[in-house]
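Re: the multi-chain job from yesterday

Posting the exact lines I submitted so nobody has to dig through the queue logs.
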Amino acid sequence: MNNKEKVLIKGNYAIAQAAVNAGLQCYFGYPITPQTEIGEYLSGVMPDLGRAYVCAESELAAINMVLGAVSTGVRAMTTSSSCAVALMQEALSYACGDELPVVLVNVMRAGPGLGYIYPAQGDYNQSVYGGGNGDYKIIVLAPSTVQECIDYTYRAFYLAQKYRNPVILLADGLLGQMMEPACFGENPYPEVDVSSWALTGAKNRDGRAIYSVGPDEKKQIQHIYNLFEKFEVIKKNETSFEEFETEDADIILTAFGSMTRNIKASMKVLRKKGIKVGCFRPITLSPFPHDRISELANKGKDFIVVEMNMGQMYKDIKYAVEGKTKVDLINRPCGEWLSVEEIVSSVEKIVTERGLAYATSV
Amino acid sequence: MSLIKINNSRCKSCYLCVNTCPKGLIKKSNKTNRLGDYLVEFEDKNNECLGCAMCAKRCPDMAIEVYKG
Amino acid sequence: MQQVFSIPKCMKKDFRYTFCPGCDHGVAVRLVAELIDEMNLQEKAICSTCVGCSVFLYNFLDIDCVEAPHGRACASATGVKRAQPDKFVFTYQGDGDFASIGLAESMHAALRGEKFSAICINNTTYGMTGGQMGPTSLMGQKTTTSPNGRNADYYGYPIKIAEHIAQCDGTAYSARVALDTIPHINQAKKALQKAFEVQQQGLGFGFVEILSSCPTNWKMSPEEAHQRVREEMIPVFPLGVFKDVTAEGGNK
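And the result, C-alpha cells for all chains:
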C-alpha cells in the first residue's frame, strides 16, 4: 500500500493497519461487536510479519497480556468495546500504577450492561474517570473521522511510551464501521527510548521490578504524587482540541468523537439562519481542555454540549465554565446519531426559550 | 570436620532445623531475637557434623551456611 | 573447608522474606533461585508475580519482575513471553491465584502451550488474608470461612491442579511435589528444573504444583504442619509427574 495514497477504508481496519505501522509487536484480543474487524484484520497481518497475535480467552486476559508485553518495552495493544472494556478496568488501574504504556482501543457500543451494538458515546466517564480503583489518570483520545483514527493511533503509541501511561483511543461503532477516504502516511512520531525501565533480563544491571504498591507508606504516597505531577506535564504538553468560528460566536456547540462531524455541519446551517454559533471539540478528553473552555466562558460565550449519552462530557464543560455562562445539553443515550436537523432545531429552541439576542440579521 | 553457621538475624525461630539434623546438633538456644523468640544454636563437641546441609535445605529463611571439611 | 551451602547468588543482597516462620514459601523461592543460578538464567529471567503471600517476590529475587493483578500472572506471562520469546519467563503463584481467580488464565495458557513455566504453591488456604477456604481446601478442613469444616454439600470439592493441567494438550510437563521432607525438597527441585527445561527447549507449558505448609493459618507448629502435608494433603493430592513430553512414550 502506498502510504501517500488516499484509500477508502473502514475505521476498524484503519486503526488496525495504523497500529501495525506504529510498530505494534503484539496484539491480544477477544471478539466483540462493533470492533471485531480489528482483531480479524490483525490475525491475517501479524503472523506474516513475525509479530505476535493471541486470541485471548477473555478481555480480562487480553489486557493483562498487554500489561506483560509492554513491560518488556515493545508496543502492544488490545481492542474492545464498552461492556468488555468494563472488564479491563482493574488492569488499567494497574497499568497506571505500574506506569505501563498500554494502548487500548474502545469502539463504543450502547450500555449499560450488555446493551446493544447501536452506536453510543456512553463510555466517556468510563474512559476519562475510569472504573478502576485508586487515584489514576488515563490519556484519552477521541477521533471523529477515519483519518483521525489513523493519526490518533500513531499518537496513542507514542504518548503511551513517552509518558509511560495507558492511552485509550475512544472511537465508536459509527467510526468503526464507517468507510471513508483516508491516508496512512508515515508514522510522524519518533521512537521512544524505553531502555531505562523495560524488562529485558538483568544483564549488566540489577533486577528491575514493575509494581504499583508496596508496604512502604511514604514511598507509596510519593508514588501517587509523582503520577499526578506527571499528568500535569501531560496536560501542559498534550492537551489538544479544535475550534471553529468561536471568535465572534455567541454559542459554542461542543462535542467529542464522531458527533463532532454533526456539530460542524449544524454550525454552518445555524450561521446561515443568523445564529452566531462556533464549534469546540476536545481531542484529548483526558487531559481535558478546561483552560480553553474557561477562557471562552470568560469571553461570555454560552455552550451547548451535543453527545450520545445522558450528559457525561456536559458535566466537564459545566465544571470548566464554572457558572460564568450558560451550558445546555442536546443528547440521546444511544442509537441513531443526532442529525444535523435535530441539532439545529434543538439549538433554535434553546435560543427561543432563552429569548436572548443571539439572532442577528443575516 | 564440618560445621554450620547460623545467621541469627535471618532466623525466625521456626525450629524446623532442630529435628532435621540427623545428629541432633542443633538445639533451642537461651538467646532471643529482637522479637523475644528463642533462637537456635549449633553445638558439635565431638565433631559429628557431616556437612550434609539438610538443616540448610530445611531452613525456610536461608539462615544457615554449611561448610564441609 | 569448603562452603557447600550458601544463599543463591540471584537473591537480592540483604533480602528479607516477609513469610511467616516455618513457611515453605521460603524453601520454594530458594529452589527457584538455585535453579536460576545453576541454569544461568538470571540475565534472561522475567517473572510475572502474583497477588498473595508471594506478592513481594520482586523484593527477594534480583531479576526482572512485573506485577500481575490477582489471578492474571499467566496472562501477563503470556504477554511477556510473546513479546520476548528468547527470555526465560515464569510465574510464581499461590493456589488461590492460579486455580481459583486465575483458573481461566492458567488453563488457557496451558492449552495454548505457552512456552513459560508456572509454579503454584498449594497450601489449601488463602494465606495472605488470614486463612480462608480456597480452591484446594481439603474436605473437612476448618478455615475462617468454613468454620465447621469443608463439606461437599455446602462448599463443593477441592481442585486437583496438576492433574487438570496435565490434561491440557499444550502442557509439556506437569508435576506435583511437596516440601515436607528433605527427599521431597530434592524431588521438588528436580521437577522445577524439568519445568524450566521444557521451556528452554520450546516444548510447551511447564507446570509444578508444590504442596506447602501454612503453619500460621493452620494454627500448627511448622513440624505439625509438615505432618499434615504428609498425612492429609498427599493422600488427596498425590505426588508425581502427570505429564512429561520428554519421557519415553511422550507422556509419563
